Amino acid sequence: MILLIGSGFWLGRQRSVDVGSLSPVSMYLFTPALIFESLVKYRATEGDGARIFLYATVHVVLLLGLSLAIAWATRQRRQAAAGFILSVIMMNSGNYGLALNLFAFGAEGFRLAMFVFLTSATIGIGLAAVVAAWAGGGDFRRAVRDVVRLPIVYAAITGAVVSTLGWTVPEVISRPVSVLAAGSIPLLLVTLGVQLSRAKAMQLEPDLGIALAMRLLLSPLLAFALAPAFGLSGMARNVAIVQTAMPTAVNAFLYAAEFNCRPGFVATAVFTSTILSFLTLTVLLALL
């Protein structure tokens, strides 16, 4: 996984790669195909899936409340608080988390990790859009429309319906979906590497350390504490905890830049949390 991210970083340094073109390709084609195939192939509506989704939803809402409280306690202004909150609640459970759980726990771990990712891609992004729009004085209706228009949402709904009803997907659809799904993880990791290669000057502000500690340490500790309440144990618990320990998602920077919520601070949080996560996630996996 590190080699794939590194190859993207090298490519971004060597050539002028248009990340703005790679990200939509991943978001609108490859990732929805991966979600749909995973929900159908691994019978996502069975077992721990629903509990993990609810668990992850409660987790992100509590994390939002904690980050709001800290922003208020440290007397941050609205835009500063929004950048801080985005850095904490938006976790890279997609291109980083799905790949890591696949490598660490195999196909079943990947299937379970999908539900935390789906929570991040729907509930998490929705909350982030509201926070960013609140800070930037933007249009809340536009933020809601951005979430509703994401193909990930419809891929998840369709996959869940097909899985629940036991339908067989026609080969004319399943074959191209499988091809797109197979390329999703490599594309996501290489794109992450390219994005990291674009990092500019660091903005090492006082509350950066708090944001990093909350994202990489407090978040998995909160997930660990919540697990018994939702009856999660074994692999389901471990996968959920690992997913919540991911670094700040690159999408956090996109929202920060769109609504002018300390984009430099958020970009620094994305870069530094990703680098530090190589250490924190290694320790976490060893402990689990």
Give a written overview of the molecule.
80% of the residues lie in helices and 0% in strands. The chain is an all-alpha fold. The protein has one domain (21-287): Na+/H+ antiporter like fold. It is globular.
Number of helices: 12
Q: What is the gyration radius calculated from CA atoms?
A: 18 Å
Q: How would you sum up the major sheet?
A: none
- CATH architecture, by name, is Up-down Bundle
Number of strands: 0
Q: Class, according to the CATH hierarchy?
A: Mainly Alpha
Whole-number mean pLDDT: 82
Total number of domains = 1
**Poorly predicted parts:** none
Percentage of residues in helical conformation: over 70%
Q: How far apart lie the N and C ends? A: 19 Å
> Helix- and strand-based class?
mainly alpha
Tell the overall outline.
globular
Would you give the CATH topology? Na+/H+ antiporter like fold
What is the H/E string?
Answer: HHHHHHHHHHHH
Task: Work out the strand percent.
Answer: under 5%
